[in-house]
Amino acid sequence: MQYRAAASIVLWLLSAGAGMGCTIPVFRFALDRWEADKFHLVLPAAISQEPATQDLLRPFRANGTANLDIQTDPRTKQARLLFSREDAEEAWSGEFQTETFRSLLDSPARQQIVDRILAGDSVLWAFVDRGSAEDAQHIDRIGKRLRFLEQAAALPLQDPNDPDSQLGPGPELKLKFSTLRIGAHDPSEALLVRMLAGPKGKDLIRHSFAAAIFGRGRVLGAWKLDELDDAPLEDACLFLIGRCSCRVKNENPGWDLLLNVDWESALRQAMAARPRDATPSAALVEPARAETITIQPRLAADPTVPPPATGCSEWSRRSPCWRHQFVLRSWVIACFGPVPVLESNRAAPASKEGHSAIVLFFL
Fold first, then answer.
1. Under 8 Å between Cβ of 73 and 103
2. Which regions of the chain does DSSP assign to beta strands (E)?
3. How do residues 37-46 score in pLDDT, each as one tens digit?
4. CA-closest candidate to residue 79, choices 68, 87, 70
5. Which residue, 103, 38, 94, 95, is CA-closest to 64?
6. Environment class of residue 138 by beta-carbon count within 10 Å: exposed (0-12), middle (13-18) or buried (19+)?
7. What is the arithmetic mean of pLDDT over 275-293?
8. Which of 38, 240, 327, 339 has a CB 3.0–4.6 Å from the CB of 27, allowing a cystine?
9. Residue 60 class from Cβ within 10 Å (0-12 exposed, 13-18 middle, 19+ buried)?
10. pLDDT tens figures, 225-254
11. What's the N-to-C CA distance of the chain in angstroms?
């Protein structure tokens, strides 16, 4: 009985923040609702006035599929591609040609990124490496940690009746961390490497690094491979799979990649491609079995039991709530094997004896 009560308290702490606002994970909220910021392609006046250039760019003006804004500047001598919110930061500059323009819009690695996102991957970790043995060791270490996180972490349970937590069209909601290696010296990926490093990442591209991609090609952040230890890796992953506490894109960290994708159409196709007879994700449905465990008031009032953690507003603060939830869940898995995901039963009234009730939903 003492074990059951202790386990209930631990699982209650794991569910801290449950029932607070939107339950859609950050990565899926971004995919559903955050449009990618536009990059700025600035052309010399002489180039933009050429008939061949006008024909080439016409499909990408106004409502084009790429998140690209095309401008003309008579003062510039060569074409320039500027980051979306950092007009002073160049992502690329050079001679504008048809093949060059196509390489600005797309690349093999970017196609893989889009495919992974539309397949439902929660977070894609892109590794930009130089092929050294040390890089391979870091990538292997990070990959093992990501596989562990997939087992130790869990998505918030989704309430289909909550109007604030309705998923948009797209792939099935699931917890999956994937990885993609990109050669630092691959000429076809030079622009992607620069974009992954971010507007302020000119120095970062001199090193091997990793970047976390989610949503419609948004990068949460980038880290040198040898500096990406468990703490920042867990912080980033747990932030992105946690409940979306701030719905305003501009108030969240990160920057976007230039991708030539019609996201609205692609997400509808991803939803239509779901197997009709597939078992729904456990994160999307009301669990079928439940067990109610009663905890006496004296245990709830025990001063040795820490109060529930509050929600985190910024992933980069490394707020203890994310770490406490993860450490506790990892401890339970290590000691007792896989554990149920806990959600508080907000609608359930207290029992006649005044005991608090916790409902464990078994996935």
1. no
2. 39-43, 68-72, 79-82, 90-94, 123-129, 177-183, 209-214, 218-224, 255-256, 289-295, 341-342, 356-362
3. 999 999 999 9
4. 70
5. 38
6. buried
7. 48
8. 240
9. middle
10. 999 999 999 999 999 999 987 666 877 889
11. 23
pLDDT score of 277 = 56
Rg (CA), the chain: 23
Q: How far apart are CA 189 and CA 126, in angstroms?
A: 12
Helix (H) or strand (E) holding 216: none
Residue written as token pair 């002489």: 46
What the block records as the tokens of 124 is: 């894609």
Alpha-carbon distances, residue 226 vs 137, 170, 199, 234, 245 (angstroms): 10, 35, 21, 15, 31
CA–CA gap between residue 49 and residue 19 (Å, rounded): 57
Q: Phi/psi class of residue 264: alpha, beta or left (left: φ > 0; alpha: ψ in -120 to 50)?
A: alpha
Return the amino acid letter for 155: L
Dihedral angle sign, alpha carbons of residues 57, 63, 68, 72: positive
pLDDT per position as a tens digit, 204-226: 999 999 999 999 999 999 999 99
Question: How many residues would you count in the chain?
Answer: 363
Question: What's the pTM?
Answer: 0.75
Residue type, 220: L
Q: Using CA of residue 110, residue 112, residue 117, residue 123, what is the dihedral sign? A: negative
Angstrom distances, CA of residue 176 to CA of 72, 100, 238: 42, 34, 12
Helix orientation angle between 320-336 and 133-152, rounded to the nearest 10 degrees: 80
Which residues in 321-340 are b (16+ Cβ under 10 Å) and which e? bbbbbbebbbebeeeeeebb
Q: What is the DSSP letter of 95?
A: -
Residue written as token pair 């305003």: 248
C-alpha span between 166 and 313 (Å, rounded): 21
Domain ranges in the chain are: 2-17+279-362, 39-105
**SS3 of residue 357 by DSSP:** strand
Distance separating alpha carbons of residues 271 and 37, to the nearest angstrom = 24
Output helix, strand, coil percentages for the chain, rounded to the nearest 5. Answer: 40, 20, 40
Token pair in block for residue 102: 């196509």
Q: Which two tokens stand for residue 359?
A: 């409902």
CA-to-CA distance for 125 and 151, rounded, in angstroms?
A: 17
Is the Cβ–Cβ distance between 344 and 15 less than 8 Å? yes
